[in-house]
């Protein structure tokens, strides 16, 4: 038997622009996790049991391009170690699906690590992240790679596509309240929408992307210098630019406004947008009030997390 887990994540700054070569900042959220357990079973075949997505089937009935099947095949190929003929792969996750919290990447990373542990072969973080990236391509089309990176390394990261990973030392911990609109939104679709906008008016979109890039660089300095309060206005600016890109939604905007009105220092959507989650930076002692007002503003659920 083997098991492994991986956390959710939030993008603090820079989503979408990161696909076009700008930097982004992201952090793990360990309150929510994907877990994978692999164990022998009496029934012949390799069984996948992913109750959260109503999937209980034999691996050989899934198309090769199914994210779970592809992750298993790619990992076994790298490990050069087949699974035994009767085995059950149980996948559970508390990370909301299609909501910008990296649930797909977390399932991939937990699955890759559980398969490696089952084969008793050590994989480097680099290998794990690279394998998970292959599945992100199936999920997202043209992923930047930020999700698999932060979920693999479980540290706040400054991510620039194609560059070596930079983890961030947070100068002073700070509190984020995450609000879930409850609206499932496909990152693939929202990334495609931004691409269509960019193709129609490259100069305008490149201006938006580079404005976001500047915000990310300033935010990184505040994070490292231990002045997290400075992040609030930067979140507001980042949200306005994402609105202009067409990836916010009435539900997200309502939560962002509700968070600010109840004492948040700043708020923005997080991840692909058009639904899913938003984040609010809150001063010490205000988390409960902000979480309550998010529920009043329509949030289905909130998570309070510390970035340290
Ligand atoms: O929706 P999520 O959590 O998968 O985040 C997507 C982030 C984007 O920048 C929109 C896409 C990407 O590949 O970086």
Folded structure, characterized:
The protein has helices at 67-79, 103-119, 125-140, 146-153, 187-200, 202-225, 231-244, 250-261, 287-296; strands at 2-13, 24-40, 45-50, 55-58, 86-93, 157-159, 166-167, 174-180, 266-269, 277-282, 301-307. With 308 residues, the protein is α+β, with helices and mostly antiparallel strands. The protein folds into 2 domains: 2-159, Ribosomal Protein S5, domain 2 (2-Layer Sandwich); 169-307, 2-Layer Sandwich (Alpha-Beta Plaits), CATH 3.30.70.890. Strand 9 and strand 10 (277-282) form a beta hairpin. The two termini are 33 Å apart. Bound molecules: (3R)-3-hydroxy-3-methyl-5-(phosphonooxy)pentanoic acid (PMV). (3R)-3-hydroxy-3-methyl-5-(phosphonooxy)pentanoic acid binds next to helix 4 and helix 5. (3R)-3-hydroxy-3-methyl-5-(phosphonooxy)pentanoic acid (PMV) binds at residues 11, 15-16, 18-19, 100-102, 140, 143-144, 146-147, 187, 191, 271-272.
Total count of strands: 11
Structural class: alpha+beta
The number of distinct structural domains comes to 2
The CATH architecture of the largest domain can be named as 2-Layer Sandwich
Give, in order, the helices and strands: EEEEHEHHHEEEHHHHEEHE
Walk me through the topology.
Layout: E1 2-13, E2 24-40, E3 45-50, E4 55-58, H1 67-79, E5 86-93, H2 103-119, H3 125-140, H4 146-153, E6 157-159, E7 166-167, E8 174-180, H5 187-200, H6 202-225, H7 231-244, H8 250-261, E9 266-269, E10 277-282, H9 287-296, E11 301-307
Parallel strand pairs: 3-5
Antiparallel strand pairs: 1-2, 2-5, 2-6, 3-4, 6-7, 8-10, 8-11, 9-10
Helix pairs in contact: 1-2, 1-3, 2-3, 2-4, 3-4, 5-6, 6-7, 8-9
The structure holds (3R)-3-hydroxy-3-methyl-5-(phosphonooxy)pentanoic acid.
Residues 11, 15-16, 18-19, 100-102, 140, 143-144, 146-147, 187, 191, 271-272 line the site of (3R)-3-hydroxy-3-methyl-5-(phosphonooxy)pentanoic acid.
